[in-house]
Structures are given as structure tokens and as C-alpha cells.
Amino acid sequence: MSTAAPTKPQAGAGGYSVARAQGKCHVSGKTINPGEKFMAAVRETQMGLERVDVAPECWEAFEKKDLLGYWQATMPESTAKKQVFIDDTVLCELFERLAQATEPAKLNFRFVLGLILMRKRMLIYETTRIENEKEIWTVRLKGKDEKLDLLNPKLDEQQVAEVSTQLGEILNGEV
Hints:
Blueprint: E1 10-12, E2 15-17, E3 37-45, E4 48-54, H1 56-59, E5 67-74, H2 88-97, H3 104-119, E6 123-131, E7 134-141, E8 148-152, H4 157-170
Antiparallel strand pairs: 1-2, 3-4, 3-5, 6-7, 7-8
Helix pairs in contact: 2-3, 3-4
């Protein structure tokens, strides 16, 4: 997560991973306490991907034009043990199985799942290309060389919230 100053992306093998929440609003520098909701976002910089966390009261004023994606999250307890219904391997398999999906709901679901897998450092972002006016990210699963395409469906705030709710139910509130 970002603090008031930008956080450099963390290098992964051949790509970048997205940092975890650190408890500070990128806009105001205010502490985001455990249990509080906030907006988490990812943007591409010249150095790679950057994680930005924003308190709800600062979200409207936050400049969103360069964001690759964003989602609502709840600041975890630093000592809380995570409860996960589905392990990372199953999530990665689901991500791969949805690769051929063409329905908008499945594309949206796969995109937000991809963002979550990046946050969990299970999916590594490589590059972005434009094909037929569509933004396609090249990614790969951790420990694998095979490149996968991930369509950025350019979700609006409501769509992100809907997909995040679905994924949150699957991941027991980790989203």
C-alpha cells in the first residue's frame, strides 16, 4: 500500500507485484485503522505497478484517470489470522479456466480475480498492449513461464463493487 509518498513497486521475477496495504491514505496521509473500509487501486508507472490506498472520504477527489483497476477493501488486523475458504492454487486454476470466457460478467470476474492474484503475488504483470481498441495485459502465474492474456474491461466503480462482493464471498472477506 502507498503512504502519502508513492511506494515503489516490488520487483518480482520478470515483472512486478502489488504491495499489500500499509494502513495510510495516499491522499491525506491519514491512518486507515484495522476494520475500516478503503479503496485500493493499482496504476502503472514508469517503474511498474504501484499500489495506492485511499480513505473513503478522499476517494471522490482522488485522480483516477491513470488507474488500471481499483476495489473496495477492509484494512486487516495486523495480527489477525486469515481465514480462506479457497486456497491460492484453486484461485489460480479458476483464473486459468476463465481464460476463454467471452461473457462480460465472466470477463469482469476474471479481471478482478487477476487483480487479487496480483495482490497475493500469485500472478505477475508483464506488459500491456492494445488490440482492436481493447487493453490486454500480459501476465503469468508465479512459477510458470506461460504468458496469459488478461482483458482490462475498464470497469466502473459500481461494477468493481459488484465483482468484489462476489469474490469477497468466495474469499471470506479478503477482498
